[in-house]
Amino acid sequence: MKPLVVAVLTLLVLPVYAHAQEERRDGNWWVGETPNTKLNYAVGLFDGMELGHDFSYWGIVKDPKKEKCLVDVRTSFDDSSAKFFSHVSNYQLVDGLDTFYKDYRNRKIRAPDAVWIVVNEIAGTPQSEVDKMIEGWRQNSSKP
Predict the structure, then answer these.
(1) 3-class SS at 97?
(2) What pTM did the predictor assign?
(3) C-alpha span between 76 and 79 (Å, rounded)
(4) Residue 92 CA to chain centroid, in angstroms?
């Protein structure tokens, strides 16, 4: 009985999963989402950062010769996350993305790239540098 239930659930979820994989998560996607979906995205981003952190060093810890690399990876993650994410809440990130995507010129920029721009703004990166980042992402996102 259990394999049948798993098979039925898989068939029901697969089309939704496939659609989610095709959908480009950029500003056009963002502005059409509900506030709850936006908050869930932010929560997922923070959880994904933790998992990404783990992935970045799990293979390294198996090789004692790479201990220096392991220290470098941990230091880089810890320094960057402290600078850009330590005092950022889910709500603040959503507000920042809402503001960023109000500018129609930013709508083709993918959400993860927009997050990077928003957390740089929150962290106090000079506006001239942020403007260069935005322009670079606008140019990159317009390419096929």
Answers:
(1) helix
(2) 0.77
(3) 5
(4) 14
